Amino acid sequence: MLLKPYTENYAEYTEKANELLAKFPLGQPIIGEAAQKEFIGLLGAILRLQNILTSFDDFAGNEILTERQMQDYRSIYLNLYAEFRKEDRGEKESINDDVVFEIELIKQVEINVDYILMLVGKWREIRGNGKDKEMSALADIQRSVDSSPTLRNKKDLVMDFVDRVSASGEIDEEWRAFVSVQRIAELEAIIAEERLKPDETRTFIEHAFRDGSIPTTGTAITKILPPGSRFTAGGGHGEKKQHVLARLGEFFERFFGLSAGSE
C-alpha cells in the first residue's frame, strides 16, 4: 500500500526537480517578479515532496537534486524571502496572496553550528595542501551558511572565525571564545552609540539570552534607556525605545544559539 504513494510522489518530484534545473539553472540570475514567483512556487513544491519522500527508504540515494544543489537553491530561496519581506513587513510567511514561502520546511533541514565547525575542521586539515581543494572546502562553508535561515545573518562571524582559527587548537573551544569576545564588543558598541546604561543593559541582555527572547514590554527596557531630551515631545522616549529594541533585537538574533553543541 505504500508503494503507490511513493511512486506517485517520486514521479512528481522528478518532474519538478528536472523543471527546476531546466528553468532556473544555478549560476544564472532569476530576473523579474514573475520568474521569481515561479521559482518560489516550484522550489516550495519540491520541498513539500521531499518532506514526504524522506519517510520512504527507497528515496535515499535516488534524489534528483544533490545536497549541494539544494543548498544553493535554498540560499536563493531565502534571498528572495528577505527581498519580499522588505516589501511587506508583516510577520506572516504568506508575503502576499500568490507567494507562500515554506520556511518551516527549510528549517527541517537546518544546518547547525556543530556542522559548520565540522566543515571548518575539514578546511583546516587540507589548508596548504592545494589551492583548489582549500577553496572548495571554503565554498562548502559559505554555501552551508547561506542555506541556513538562522546562520545566514551570522556569515561574517563564521568567515571571520575561519580566518582566525589556529592550526591545531580545539575548534569548539576557539569558537566559544571567539563568539564571547565578539558578543561583548558588539554589545559595548551599542551601549556607547545609544548612550544606554551599561550595567542595566548587560543584565537586560543576559536575561534575554537566558529566557530565549528580548522582552519588548514591561519596565526592563525603560530602565536601560538614557534620559529623554527635554526639547522633544515626550522626551523622544517612545521613538528611542523602539529604536533600541530594534538594535538589541538584531544583536540577540545574531548571537543567540551560537555556542557549539547548543543545537
SSE topology sketch:
Elements: H1 3-23, H2 33-53, H3 67-87, E1 94-96, E2 99-100, H4 103-108, H5 113-126, H6 131-146, H7 155-164, H8 171-194, H9 198-211, H10 237-255
Antiparallel strand pairs: 1-2
Helix pairs in contact: 1-2, 2-3, 3-6, 5-6, 8-10
Could you explain the architecture of this structure?
- With 263 residues, the chain is mostly helical.
- The chain folds into three domains: 3-108, Methane Monooxygenase Hydroxylase, Chain G, domain 1 (Up-down Bundle), CATH 1.20.58; 112-169, no CATH class; 181-263, no CATH class.
- It is 63% helix and 2% strand.
- Strands 1-2 form a two-stranded antiparallel ribbon.
- It is globular, with a radius of gyration of 22 Å.
- The chain starts with a helix and ends in an 8-residue tail after the last helix.
- 16% of the residues are buried.
- Residues 90-95 have low confidence and may be disordered.
